[in-house]
Amino acid sequence: MSDALPVPGLDRDRLVGLAYRMLGTVADAEDAVQEAFVRWYRLDDAARRNVANPVGWFAKTTSRVCLDMLKSASRRHDSYVGPWLPEPVPDDRYAVHTAEAGDPSERAMRTESVSMALLTVMETMTPAERVAFVLRDVFDFPVADIAEVLDRSPGAVRQLASSARTRIRDAGTTRAAPSTRLVAAFQHAATTGDVAALVRLLHPEVMLRSDGGGRVRAALNPVLGADKVARFVVGVLARQAPTTLTVHAGGTEPVLTFTRDGDTSGVLELVVDGAGTVRQVLVQWNPDKLGSWRRG
C-alpha cells in the first residue's frame, strides 16, 4: 500500500486526532485510520470515482471503525490492571484549530478534548454518545452526516450529543486549564518535599489515579484526600530518585513529566475547579501510552 495520501486535501493527523478522541490511545487511533485506508483501497476504481467527497468519506469511515471498536469486547477495560487512563500527547498535533469567532466555551471544549481528564469522562459514555459528541461538539460535523455514521435519526443524534454534554457537565470536567503558575507551584512543592505547601494546592477531597497497566508499579486504587495525595507524590519522587518532575507546556495545557536519565517515565495532569484548586491528579505510567514522550 502506498504511503502517499490517496486524496488531495486529506489530513491524516486530523483523522488520527478524531479517532484518538473516540478511542483514548494513539495506537488504537492509528489502527482505526489504517483500517479506513484499507477499505478505501478495497474499493474498485468506479466506486472511488463515485465518492463525491473523499475527505468526508474518510472521516465517516474512520468514525464507523471507531464505533465498532468501542462496541467490541476488546474495548472494555474489565481485565485491565488498575485504573485505566487515556494516553496523553506531548504537543498540539491533534488540536482542533478553530476561528476566534464563536462561543468561547465551544472553542475551549475543542482544545480541551485532548486532556486526560476529559477523555476519562468520555470513557463513561456509550459508544454512540462518544462518536456523536466528538463529531458534533469537537469537529462540528453536520448532524445529517453523523446520523449516517450512527445509522440514527438526526433527532437521535442531537439527543446523544446532549446526553454526552450532560455527562461532562455533571463530572465537572469543563474547566479552565490549570495555570502555569499553579503547575509550577505543584512541581516546586513536590520536588522539595514540602507536603504542607502541596496540601494547600489541593482540594480536601482530591483524588489521585495512576495507570501502570500492569507494566510498571502504580497505585491499584485511587488515593483520596489532600494529605494522602501530597505524601504519595512526594513519596514517589523519593523512591524513584534521581527522577525529576518537570513542567511541560508544549501541549494544549501544562502538565508535569517524570524524567530519569533524559527519558520520560510518567506524565501527571492536574484537574482544577473554578477556584483554581486541584480536584484530581492523573498520572500515566504505562509505557505503552508514553511512546510519543520517550526518546527514540
Automatic annotation (TrEMBL):
Give all residue intervals belonging to the RNA polymerase sigma-70 region domain.
13-76
Pfam annotation, one family: Sigma70_r2
Q: Where is the RNA polymerase sigma factor 70 region 4 type domain?
A: 116-167
Tell me which UniProt keywords the record has, alphabetically. Answer: Sigma factor, Transcription, Transcription regulation
Q: Which InterPro entries match?
A: ECF_Sigma-70_Domain (IPR052704), NTF2-like_dom_sf (IPR032710), RNA_pol_sigma-70_dom (IPR014284), RNA_pol_sigma70_r2 (IPR007627), RNA_pol_sigma70_r4_t2 (IPR013249), RNA_pol_sigma_r2 (IPR013325), RNA_pol_sigma_r3/r4-like (IPR013324), WH-like_DNA-bd_sf (IPR036388)
Cited Gene3D superfamilies: 1.10.1740.10, 3.10.450.50, Winged helix-like DNA-binding domain superfamily/Winged helix DNA-binding domain
Q: How does it assemble?
A: Interacts transiently with the RNA polymerase catalytic core formed by RpoA, RpoB, RpoC and RpoZ (2 alpha, 1 beta, 1 beta' and 1 omega subunit) to form the RNA polymerase holoenzyme that can initiate transcription.
NCBIfam families in the cross-refs:
PRK09636.1, sigma70-ECF
Family named by the database record: Belongs to the sigma-70 factor family. ECF subfamily.
**Protein known as:** RNA polymerase sigma factor SigJ
Which lineage is the organism of this entry classified under, starting from the top rank? Bacteria, Bacillati, Actinomycetota, Actinomycetes, Micrococcales
- What gene does the UniProt entry assign to this protein? sigJ
